[in-house]
Amino acid sequence: MKKIAIVGAGCSGLAAIKCCLDEGLEPVCFEREIEVGGLWNYTENPKLGKGSVYKNCVINTSKEMMAYSDFPPPEQFPTFMPHSYVLKYFKLYAENFGLYKYINFETSVQNIRPTLDYKETGRWEVVTCKKGHNEVTETFDGVLICTGHHTYPNMPTFRGLDVFNGQVMHSHSYRENSKLTGKRVLVVGIGNSAVDIAVDASHTASQVYLSTRRGAWVISRKGFWGLPADAMANSRFVFSLPKSFLGWGVEKMSNLIFDHEGFGLKPKHGAFQAHPTINDELPFRIMVGAVRVKPNIYEFTENKVRFEDGSCEEIDVVVFATGYNYKLSFLDKSVTCIDKNNTCLYEYMFPPELEHPTLGIVGLVQAIGAVMPISEMQCRWYTRLIKGLVNLPSKEEMYEDIDKKRDEMSKLYISTQRHTIQFDDHITTFWIEYMDEIANKIGVKPDFKKLFLDDPWLALRCIFGPCFPAQYRLHGPGKWNGAKPCIQDAMKRCMSPNRAKILPKNAELRTKNNV
């Protein structure tokens, strides 16, 4: 039995443990904290090197679209889960599949390097240190790095920032709005974290300013009839349409919610040239004056901020929601390196120079959609590779694929810290194309010809309905007998918590007459 080291017990690490067990491998997971969940394990105090969420954070993807492919969330869980429910889901997953016994808590990974006989064996030396103990070096047949990429804050520099007397923090450190009561707050950025924090802070702060260089297309979590927008949009049929048409449609739908130009948020780029921002409250908070949109910062003074349009505002607190620097400090530099968030990884997972596909980096993608199903799919691919059941292409082919994606990304995306690890050839596919690409390598992509013959209604549902992760459990290795009912009942489970009890007709009138 091959022994696999797994770094991190967040959403990707848990999937890695489960996938190893499914393929008869021995997982040994190292987690620095005392509990699973990674980013979603909320703590009052931020820690450098650990992802974080704030107290009122709610996930942007609906529960069925973020689910692992063979473990749907409980029906009673909210459609869009607050961070506490996301953590509960991960704990349920770990308990259901018996993953806890493979996790070494309070154990940090110090170094990962190839063994002296790596060329022959493909094995790795992993140096770990449990809290209060000495370092330990062990040899593993493979390594899966599942540490995420929201761990090291990227702090920008501005003229005069060093003389500013107010409080300065990164969104990584933001926890709750009560600490901003009565203060004038400037949030810098226009991504999901920036807008979420601006909205959250606006409920207690005396005034919130939202500074953006480019603007953004802001979309809603909910679609028509109150259904989850990500589930409605993430279908194979939708993304078979021309990309230009889809981009036009997103821009029109965004402007139906609120006029982006009138609200000072219309960007110069198209809807699919940058990662969209998801928020439902921002337009209303702008309309009531709680949030005011500002252009880019020109300079700081001791207690004020001057913007590029010449306006100047007194500011007490600045929150930089300006992304993260991605680091793998424990990984030997001979393996791979990340420079200004630029990576050289085949399918954003494998260093192409390695002679053996025994080390993989999981979840290092910026998906328009949930990372959990992607991480799970990557781990399923890795376990098949390390068992020799599938193979990677040649080094030349891998580099050709990497260069192709880089060229397409440079043409498609505006250049920001945020998009350098974007994975998709076409951002318009959300994650369907990437999922299908990896699924096809291991034989778990839905076989629609066979599906139409066996169950035409299910085939139509998979093509025209939401691409729920359970679609990748219908066929091939890891086939799950519960996949079909999971797909059929997914939308019902998703919307079930929202159903309120409806009184019978005229019940309210009878009640009033009886009083």
- Give the amount of beta strand, in percent: 15-25%
Categorize the overall geometry: globular
Query: pLDDT average, as an integer?
Result: 90
Largest sheet: 5 strands, parallel
Physical arrangement of strands within the biggest beta sheet: 3-2-1-7-20
The first-to-last residue Cα distance is 73 Å
Q: Extract low-pLDDT stretches.
A: 417-429
- How many strands? 20
The structural class is alpha/beta
- Secondary structure tally, helices: 14
In angstroms, what is the radius of gyration?
Answer: 24 Å
Helix content range: 25-40%
Family: Belongs to the FMO family.
Protein name: Flavin-containing monooxygenase 5
Subcellular location: Microsome membrane
EC number: 1.14.13.8, 1.6.3.1
Describe the structure.
The chain is of the alpha/beta class and 515 residues long. It contains 14 helices and 20 strands. The chain has helices at residues 11-22, 83-96, 118-121, 192-201, 229-233, 243-257, 282-287, 371-386, 395-412, 432-442, 448-454, 456-464, 483-495, 507-514, and strands at 3-7, 26-30, 103-104, 107-114, 124-130, 135-140, 142-145, 152-153, 167-170, 184-188, 207-211, 218-219, 277-278, 291-294, 297-300, 304-307, 312-314, 317-320, 324-325, 359-361. The protein has a five-stranded parallel sheet with strand order 3-2-1-7-20, with helices on one face. A hairpin with a 3-residue loop joins strand 15 and strand 16. Helix 8 runs parallel beside helix 10 (432-442). The termini are far apart.
